[in-house]
Amino acid sequence: MPRPSARRALPVALLSALALAVPAAASAAPEPGFETLTPACVPAPPVQHPGCGTAYRGAPLPSGTPDQVVELSGADRFATAAAIAEHGFPEADVAVLVSGEDRHLVDALSAAPLARSLAAPLLLATRDDVPAATAAYLRDHAVRSVVVVGGDDALSALTPKRLQTLGVTDVQRIAGADRYATSRAVAAFLPAATHGWAASGEDAHLVDALAAAGPAARLGEPLVLVADDDPIPAGDALRALGVTTTTVAGGPEGVFPEALAPLPTPHRAAGEDRYGTAAAVAVEAVDAGLPAEDVVLAPGLTGHLVDALASGPLGRATLLVGEDQSSFDVVEAWFDTYGAGRVTAVGAVSISG
């Protein structure tokens, strides 16, 4: 497709202030209007959902003025996820709980579309604890139903009991024999869709799935992980949901060329590196209807990817920020092309002027 004409560039002062940091928690100024979130209750949710057929208030809508900046962060990854939850899901009755430990992030990569379909945030825990920020969100919102994604090695068998002490009465776990089976099990709870997303499940390429999570969530489409040595189950899972076309996030070093054939009419969204791939995925999302001027900036460095994970249910096009110039070039090119309406920086990404 032809490149859209440039409309408005991000101010140089704002772009030059973009950095990876550990900012203090911040909140956006009040904005008129909010998203409306309606739980998808067909197929039946994995937990009892008291809000089937109910409209929930979601995130504030952009005010319409250019160059808005919203920073969502906390003292640690768990508090950052809770801050994102407060922003995007202030009225949630249901939550999705995933591991916030780096070695288990892969189990949660496909959870963003499910969370948004339930009008639910994505909260983080450790294998053996429900951190204070997560517990506070669950208590403050009187959440009674929680979907746990991942096996006992990610979130232990005692997790439901820990949640019950917080007032949660309905806990259901979605897990498969491995990361790929878990992603397919999560996708099975999503409504039918004609388009789906696929990405590598290899540790070195998890960032590609993170870039696709926000668009998949907003569009109500499944995101499954593809095993290069056994891609047929991923294709079968997508077809079972009615998928006829698939966007594969990432290049051939992530999902091998020979692994594409079992997927429904696949095509790639990929760049020269993880930052270019995130931008390519974001372009696909904009072409599918997501607003180009309302984007998330999330950390793209290993060790900070969890912040991008928590922001997936917001359902926004996502650009990744690193420490090298290539990531800043991608961000600058995006705003040169599409302009800057609202920029939401999450976790270790800070924008300060």
TrEMBL record:
Keyword annotations: Signal
Q: Provide the leader sequence positions.
A: 1-28
Q: Name one Pfam family in it.
A: CW_binding_2
- Keyword Signal assigned to the entry: answer is yes
Q: Can the keyword Membrane be found in this entry's annotation?
A: no
Q: Which GO terms describe its cellular component?
A: outer membrane-bounded periplasmic space
Top-level taxon in the UniProt lineage: Bacteria
> Mind telling me what this protein is named?
Cell wall binding repeat 2
**Species classification:** Bacteria, Bacillati, Actinomycetota, Actinomycetes, Kineosporiales
